[in-house]
Amino acid sequence: MPTALPTPRARLRFAPLLGVLAIALSPTGVPREAAPAEVTSPAKVAYDAKQKEYALKAAFLFHFAKHTAWPKKSLPKDTSPIYVTVVGRDPFGKVLDSVLRGKKVDDHALIIRRYANVAAIRDAHLIVAGHLSAKERDKLVAHCRARAIFLIGDQPGLAARGALASFYLKKGKVRFEMNRWAIDASGLKISSQVLKLARFVQERR
């Protein structure tokens, strides 16, 4: 069922994310990677739109980290880092580093890691499935299943295949869908501030 737009009160509770989005979309929040000089105007518009899309997705990742409680064994110390991991070809580029640079959740620093494949993953807390083959996507879902890992797909559909969440676009806006079974199996405690903004999907088994 499509997620209703947040009420005015919900938007107030969502203010921390909106603040991060403002930073993400500011001239200093989005890396100013110069587009090639020869690009046409439509291509430049598409380039800028993609930069903004991934700045928003990066801001959502911070929001997810901020409103998720991992079990003690995953974060044994008050200062243990939260590893934000991209697996596969990275669609974010420098945007993820720019938006999350210096960010903390309480005393947990957010550390970005990137791995080409599932076999290389180490100590991940929040994983983004980047551009992967179908076989590697299935391996990633199996790797994260019933573990305290917030797995989200960059493209829609992964939540229905067993991941905890997936991003999707609706009328050009970044949204996300979630899998209730995967959330329960993960043992993660996710705040209602995240859950109320999600579109929930049924897992295909």
Spell out the helices and strands N to C.
HHHEEHEEEHEEEHEHE
Radius of gyration: 17 Å
Would you state the CATH class?
Alpha Beta
- Span from first to last CA? 19 Å
Approximate shape: globular
Percentage of residues in strands: 15-25%
Give the biggest sheet. 8 strands, mixed
Counting helices, strands and paired strands, the structural category is: alpha/beta
Q: Strand arrangement, largest sheet?
A: 3-4-2-5-6-7-8-10
- The tally of strands reads 10
Instruction: Indicate the low-confidence ranges by residue numbers.
Output: 1-14, 22-35
Oligomer: single chain
Indicate the CATH topology.
Rossmann fold
Instruction: Give the domain tally.
Output: 1
What this model shows, in words?
This protein has 205 residues and is α/β, with parallel strands linked by helices. The chain has a single domain, classed as 3-Layer(aba) Sandwich (Rossmann fold). Helix content is 35%, strand content 20%. The protein is built from 7 helices and 10 strands. It has helices spanning 8-13, 15-25, 41-66, 95-100, 134-144, 180-186, 192-195, and strands at residues 68-69, 82-87, 104-105, 108-115, 126-129, 150-153, 165-170, 173-178, 189-190, 199-200. The strands form 2 sheets. Strands 3-4-2-5-6-7-8-10 form an 8-stranded mixed sheet, sandwiched between helices. The chain has a two-stranded antiparallel ribbon with strand order 1-9. A hairpin with a 2-residue loop joins strand 3 and strand 4 (108-115). The longest helix has 26 residues, at 41-66. The chain is globular and about 50 Å long. The model is unreliable at 1-14 and 22-35 (pLDDT under 50).
